[in-house]
Design goal:
The protein has 2 domains: 11-127 and 291-332, Response regulator (Rossmann fold, 3-Layer(aba) Sandwich); 135-289, Response regulator (Rossmann fold). 42% of the residues lie in helices and 14% in strands. The protein has helices at residues 2-18, 43-58, 72-84, 101-109, 135-150, 178-197, 209-212, 219-229, 247-256, 273-280, 292-307, 342-347, 354-357; strands at 32-37, 62-67, 89-92, 113-117, 129-133, 166-170, 200-201, 239-243, 286-289, 329-332, 335-338. It has a 6-stranded parallel β-sheet with strand order 2-1-3-4-5-10, with helices on both faces. Helix 1 (2-18) runs parallel beside helix 11 (292-307). The longest helix has 20 residues, at 178-197. It starts with a helix and ends with a helix. The structure holds beta-D-glucopyranose.
Length: 358
Amino acid sequence: MTGRRTPALALVGVLALAAGCAGPQAQDETPLVGIAMPTTVQTRWVADGENLSAQFESLGFDVDMRYADDDPQAQVDQIQAMLDAGADALVVGAVDSKPLGPVLAKAHDAGVKVVSYDRLIRDTGDVDFYASFDNRRVGVLQATSLLQGIGVLDANGERTKAKGPFAIEVFAGSPDDNNATVFYDGAMSVLQPYLEEGVLVVPSGQVEREDVATQGWKAEVAGERMTSLLGRYQGGTRLAAVLAPNDGIAQAVLAATADLGYTPVVPGQDAEVPAVKSVAAGVQFSTVYKDTRQLAEVTVEMVQDLLRDSEPEVNDTTSYDNGVTVVPSYLLPPQLVTQDNYRAVLIDSGYYSEKEIG
Ligand code: BGC
């Protein structure tokens, strides 16, 4: 993954030089950034952590990075340990916002800046900025791709004459992850009119967010749920598509449906290597690529600005109300990846090498 960081580092390095003596290197003590990451289960978080720490370190920051193994209390303890070690700023990819309030309040009392990383930290005023992707757009891309896959929309996103009814099933991410709600809402905003018209039907009847959630984003939980829904499709209704919120769940759904004798249309998210290979082979229908190099770059700039008391650049000041405050955000654009464009988007851009995907 080393090669992927070069452009981001070059840019941040130039910015740091341009900022001259206001940069962190000019302070008396080397600034310490605490990076609290949620999990290593999805490989994207491993790349996020590598990108963030490499970029901070190249600018002369000390880094204390810890992964919480999807355990909310472990993450609280890790953040407390970062504060005890003298962190000047925190970058937090939350497992679950609920238990984070008190430790983030302590951070703020101590003057420590907090950037919510990729996942919005909810229900606290003690979060300064949010760096993420346009998560609603992720859901819109997934649902649009699903409709293209079953032929209700054409390649340009225009309505075709296909009337269905097409049977689909719906999966969402973890109930404790704000992103999962935003992905789901974005996707349902596209699918709902087709459900109302009867072009799409959900034979299980499970569509509501709480009925389709996947606790902890666990692929095995999604696989079990898909298996439990299979009866009605064995020798009966054709399962045209399954809305899967990320690649881990998409792959579990595809594994669970492998014996149907055909492949339902399944979108995903994260452009993880196994999923991209599957898209290239024509099995998983699509994925959504989010360039974590860029997310790291935006986050590092935010932290630099916060530590030199200048206002970080944001491009959204309305979408992310965390229940206490609207958190100023920088949202990057996600991109749909299909069998047609994976090579151009992921390999030609240097995100993956030919060898990694081939
Ligand atoms: C991220 C996704 C990821 C999921 C599970 C979400 O908050 O935005 O990229 O697949 O968490 O880790």
